[in-house]
Amino acid sequence: MKKTILSIALIAISFMTFAQVGIGITIPNPSAALDVTSTTRGLLPPRMTQAQRNAITTPAAGLIVYCTNCGANGELELFNGSAWVNVVGGEAQAGVSTVFIASGVSKVFMAHNLGADTSLDPHTPVQGIHGNYYQWGIIGSVADDTTSSAAISGWNTTAAVNGSWSDASKTVNDPCPEGFGLISCKVFLAKL
After folding, report:
1. What is the mean pLDDT of residues 6-15?
2. Helix or strand holding residue 110 (H, E)
3. 101: which of 29, 87, 105, 110 fits an S-S bond (Cβ 3.0–4.6 Å)?
């Protein structure tokens, strides 16, 4: 009886030590704890808003979720042990779009116009996403989408000082949030 119990225990331990779970496959890959195989279906991770994701207490490094209101149209994110990052490797955040330019090359842009209501979907055409109008070289907005087509009150008729907005670095007059800036078409094309 003792030999039978010992044999069963050893077999059970060996299965637990080398066990892999396979879904849709008979022999799972030995390097994977979970091997999901399908040619007609995908893997669907938990879907949640950024607020719900942020409410996860003590997320484990490697935790994966799909944030429905992050990026331009939602994005797959993982917790790297200290911060949520998108699968491209950039900082996970709502209100930005990652645009893939070429193989292995991507750029991050604001998804909303300056001054727009960032709680709104930037892809739904409503007045709140239009944002503000800025005069070149001036930090404050001079109008918004509700301003009449008459002369704009507060328009500065004095030309801005050269370098008020710079391609090379953020200036005190640059109205963009930290991490973003205004660049010329020439510089944009050179960065592609």
Report:
1. 52
2. strand 105-110
3. 105
